[in-house]
Amino acid sequence: MTRSPDMDALSRVSAHAVPPYGTAVRTAEFRGPLYAEWGPAMRAEALRGSVGELTAEALRERVGIPSIERRDVWEDVDPITIERISVAAAETHSRPWADALGSLFARYVRDGDRATYERAVSERQERLTRAVIAAAVTDDPMWIDEAADGAVVLCEQSTWSLPAHDDAHARRGFVLPDVAAPYLDLVAGEIVAQLAVADRVLGPCWDESWPGLRERIRHEAEARVFTPFETRDDLWWLGYWREVNNWNPWILGNVLLAALLLLDDPERVACILARALDSLDRYVAELPADGAIDEGVAYWWNGAGRMLEMLDTVAAITDGGLDATRIPVVGETLRFPTRMHLGGDWYVNVADGWARSRGHEPWQLPFRWGTLTGDARVTAWARAARRPGQPVAEVAGGLPRLVRALVDTAWRDAVPAAAPLPAAVWLGSVQVLVRRAEAGSAAGLALAAKGGTNDENHNHKDLGSFLVAAGGRQLLVDVGKPTYTAQTFSAERYRVRAMQSGWHSAPAPYGLEQGEGPAFTAQVITAPQGEPGPIPPVGEATVLELELAGAYPLAAGDSWRRTFRFDASGSAGGTERIEVADRWRLSEDGAHRIHVIAAGVVTPSGDAVEVAADGHRIRIAADDGNAPVAPSLEVWELDDPELIAVWGPWLTRLVYDVGGRAGSFTTVIEELS
């Protein structure tokens, strides 16, 4: 047990506000997959000669956000969505706007609470979104005024950045934002895009009844977004001095949309576009060829999904001149969520992801991109979430996404379809296996197992962990994301229980936690088959073998092998068998633990254990090669609202105590009728 944790372990999970002391920021031209496809056509000189020669209004027309004057469009939007929005808008109309108080902002530094301030800002944004849509549909002065009030409220907000992201504390020790030096983060990008879309939709009305409002929006956008974006090379998410993650396309797409809708100088817009594409290329270059997202499906929507939205905008404003639909990694990344789908609203979750769909995903986005790329699997997956009688999109997804969904008549008229649910998936870049008995069916058991490294974005110590679903419902689980606090992205991150290897279904040699950082990895010994490569033949067992010694601070030469075996030799519907076999050979004797995390009602049954939830039930039996072994049960009474929303009031950890310098242990999971 000689290896110590890497002191730079937080490099992938902490949103550093400023470059490390002494780091030189270099902005040299970058050539990644986008440049390989488009070449100099994506650079400023070429864009000034194409985009820059159009009028500002011509560019705005190409974006496809309709003004309130387009009555033919607004009178034809989905009535079910509008009814839902109208009812909610009426409920809040007479109330005061949410207070995003300075004392709430300061709590991030004072006591670590970030959620209370964030909720206040979200309430403001959602109320403004509802007002804009109500105004566009009804052309009612009451809603036009309500939307104007919301725009003013956001313009008067001291910062558009969240306290967890703002760099004023790191630079100057402030507990409040530094209004003289605004920080451009995720929510600043969201707000500027929201105001830009509101301005585009309601601008003609505001010109008549609110003169000066549109100028105020442009002033705030200039100071808080456009100038920082054009002048600050130290913004980490640009990719000039560290690797990027979902922040990159999320912010870039919103900045570009706002520039197109708010700026009257097409040449400046062309330069912003060139800078944004150079930065986005760095994100695309980090995407693996198999399209896997190490942050999981939850962050796909606001990472890769934001990339797709931005690329769609780029294609539109260049009249198809810069088209990304033929770039292979874009297509593979588009398919990633379909490969992680367990059934219904359940997904394989890794890192800070949720195991269940949150209900406000912008399904119009994959539907459109599946259509653009001709990928019927993706459109079917999106249509599987289309519910007759339900809105085409949710307010919580943001105004730009809501408007796109409302004006997409193909999405409005889409009918439900069966999700593709591939039989086998193997994503070697992140070492994730997903296996079920039969393609296209959530019936029976499904296994997901994970290797990888402990240097992933939003990393949890989850190497060698697994989850099991029955009928699509997770019963052996990855806990996922709790409510974020100041601790979440600090040196104290791995004191959060949900992020510890001890609360994943993983072994604990000598009772150890896994190490953190790039030095701690799993090694694939035997790789399975599955999308995006060949699918194993029907009836053939799927096997994944991992060497996990490198995930722990163990002595050189130690070995802990974990083998996952999914046997679907019979037909689907309860004949599958999942086997997790551990074998170890260590340099010292000691006591070890093997953990399994369960959600639902856990009931001992002899030496075995049964887990049941939502009408699904599995049996877990284990032995050490000599005799059955019964676990001890540890209940985690949940008090975090985000975890309760997914799992209910508790989770249970099954703890198997084993020992010896060498040994073996096998866990078998079967479905019960």
What is the secondary structure topology, with strand pairs?
Blueprint: H1 33-38, H2 44-48, H3 56-63, H4 71-74, H5 79-92, H6 102-110, H7 115-138, H8 141-156, H9 168-172, H10 186-209, H11 213-231, H12 247-262, H13 266-286, H14 297-300, H15 304-317, H16 328-339, E1 341-343, E2 346-347, H17 364-373, H18 376-384, H19 399-406, H20 409-412, E3 424-427, E4 432-436, E5 445-450, E6 453-454, E7 466-470, E8 473-476, E9 507-508, E10 517-521, E11 523-526, E12 542-547, E13 559-567, E14 577-585, E15 591-598, E16 601-605, E17 608-613, E18 616-623, E19 632-637, H21 641-647, E20 650-659, E21 662-672
Antiparallel strand pairs: 1-2, 3-4, 4-5, 5-7, 6-10, 7-8, 9-15, 11-12, 12-13, 13-14, 14-21, 15-20, 16-17, 17-18, 18-21, 19-20
Helix pairs in contact: 5-7, 7-8, 7-10, 8-10, 8-11, 10-11, 10-12, 11-12, 12-13, 12-15, 17-18
* Strand residue content: 15-25%
Q: Give the integer mean of the pLDDT values.
A: 95
Rg, Cα atoms, Å: 26 Å
Q: How many beta-strand elements?
A: 21
The helix content, as a percent range, equals 25-40%
Characterize the overall form: globular
| Amino- and carboxy-terminal Cα gap | 45 Å
Number of helices: 21
Q: What structural category characterises the helix and strand content?
A: alpha+beta
Strand neighbour order, sheet with most strands: 11-12-13-14-21-18-17-16
What oligomerization state is this entry in?
single chain
Largest sheet report: 8 strands, antiparallel
Q: Unreliable runs, pLDDT <50, ≥5 residues?
A: 1-9, 570-574
Detailed description of the structure:
- The protein has 673 residues and is α+β, with helices and mostly antiparallel strands.
- It contains 21 helices and 21 strands.
- Strand 16 and strand 17 (608-613) form a beta hairpin.
- Helix 7 packs antiparallel against helix 8.
- Residues 1-9 and 570-574 have low confidence and may be disordered.
